[in-house]
Design a protein that fits this description.
Helicase, Ruva Protein, domain 3, two-stranded parallel ribbon, 153 residues, Arc Repressor Mutant, subunit A, 8 helices, mainly alpha
């Protein structure tokens, strides 16, 4: 795991002490997450530049979690700038001005997409969404989602 090798693990420290490191880590996290779910994904140069310009106030685990979400939600192999922007906008956080009904529908669809991408594996799904398994179960319960709908059993 890449972030285990970084003392402090702060992305802003990476940017200041190792220029260009964030895109390398972003692609490495994409590769690692995609391999876990049997996908092969690449980030375009524009998408990598966009990620580098984003504010990453948390530690490098925040970047990893976002890359895992992108993998879980992605339906493409090549992740262009526009596609990555749309995936980032559709993360679990609510955009300003969105109605609670629309937000609930969007969250349910994101949850269903992540479950499908992870073939019903709750641990992988929770990790890809950046939530705990308990939180995942709560969301599934709230939306009346049955995990068996997404497994190949």
């Amino acid at each position: 795991m890449l972030d285990d090798k970084l003392p402090g693990n702060l992305v802003h420290l990476l940017e200041s002490s190792h220029p260009g490191a964030l895109p390398r880590y972003a692609q490495a996290f994409i590769d690692e997450s995609a391999e876990a779910v049997g996908k092969s994904l690449t980030l375009s140069a524009g998408a990598l530049r966009h990620l580098e310009r984003q504010d990453w106030p948390g530690n490098i685990r925040e970047l990893r979690n976002m890359m895992e979400r992108i993998v879980a939600m992605s339906k493409r192999e090549h992740l262009s700038l526009g596609y990555v922007k749309s995936l980032l906008q559709n993360s679990f956080s609510s955009p300003d001005g969105e109605s609670s009904g629309a937000m609930r529908t969007r969250k349910e669809q994101q949850l269903r997409d992540a479950l499908a991408a992870c073939e019903g594996n709750l641990e992988k799904t929770a990790r890809s969404l950046g939530v705990s398994r308990v939180t995942l179960w709560r969301h599934m319960s709230a939306f009346s989602i049955n995990r068996k709908e997404y497994t190949h059993e």
